[in-house]
TrEMBL record:
InterPro entries: Homeodomain-like_sf, HTH-type_TetR-like_transc_reg, HTH_TetR, KstR2_TetR_C, Tet_transcr_reg_TetR-rel_C_sf. This is TetR/AcrR family transcriptional regulator. It comes from the Bacteria. GO terms for molecular function: DNA-binding transcription factor activity; transcription cis-regulatory region binding.
Amino acid sequence: MRNVPAKLAAKLYGAADLIADKGIADAKIEEIADASGVPIATLYYYFRGKEEILAFLLGDLLESIAGEVGAAMSKPGTAIDRLKWAVEAQMRVMLENPAACRALVGDLGRATRLPELATALESAFHQPLEQLLREGVEDGTLRAVQDPGKAALSVFGTITIAGLTGTVAQPEHAASYAQETVQAVCDLLLEGLRPRE
């Protein structure tokens, strides 16, 4: 896949609803071109096919999540505060991009077979979150867990599934869903991770 200019990337999100509704297997490249307003020749210049378009959309979404979560994790504050801000940041990005999230749900099996996404996820989210969990033990706001890597994966999975559920089941109530879900996720995660008396 070639480097995709920002203007083209923004247009591709116009096809996310189509991909979410039909699935990438049933969406025709002509339909993706029509929905995005990008000529077919341009799509083929940047992508080898529909699979790469899906991979780009998911990778771009992941990059947005990583940027916002990274900024939240690097704010001054205790580890537990930064963990809460990271949860809020990921949920916000997901609910701001409902069509891309719906496309992810529809093609989750296909998405999990994209090794570059797994690699990006590891460096963008899992490793920083593992570090944050260790810092929480040092500053006394989080308890030690046996395997910070698996704990980081569990945190990401919890937020991701909650966010995906909101974009699929509650799109018209995204703002209230986000607040309620962030609170529920944080209560579960943070109370479960607090040091035990």
